[in-house]
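Q: Two folds, back to back.
A: First:
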Amino acid sequence: KSWLGPSLAWCFGVLAMTGIWTTLGIWLDQPCLWMAAVSAIDLGLILRFTGVGAGWPRFSGIVIGTLLISISSQWLIAANAFGLVMGLLPLESIQMVGQVLVWEFTRLRIETHELAYLLAATFIAWFLGLRQQK
């Protein structure tokens, strides 16, 4: 089987969910960690419908994709917030903020109970990735 189709679908899924999460985070002015669960479901369905069999490849794709979406979305949300304060365009502020600034900005905005969404995303990745279909 070809790996090109599932890989392209996975890349488009990651980019699309990053855009959706970032847009919601900026619009609601929140980190929106519940989107981690939505991202895991989206990637799981994308990989399943493109023919990736249940097992470690699908599980790894869901976990890595959700992690990439989470980190890049929080980076873009923080960059937008700091760019607004400094009078920069979003593309300029993305290059100026560093990882320490993004981490502190995100850490201060996340409430403790919202970390359960990351645990839910891991469970969803297990359920959609490693569980065999009957």
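A: Second:
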Amino acid sequence: MKNLFIILAILSVVAFITNPKHSDFQSKANELWEQGLNQEADSGKIVAKIARFLGAGKSGGLVLSVQREDFFLFSLGTVYNNIDGQPLGTMLGCFGQVYLV
């Protein structure tokens, strides 16, 4: 029982130290934005091809905003569209990684 407590304490300290920052969430949102744009352009959508040509894939930070909630051991981030303010998705951050939920 004592060993379990020690292991949980160590995992908690590691989770707290490696909890992703707001910039990690924004970087992941921008990366996913660029991947989605590239997939649409590769599938033949003309608007996506023009947007990629004009560099819209690199401007994910202008189109997307992330609101991060810190729970000390992990974080939740909600991605919003800056144009109309609609939520686009949720991300989970733990142990230095950010995942799309």
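Q: And?
A: The mean pLDDT is 90.
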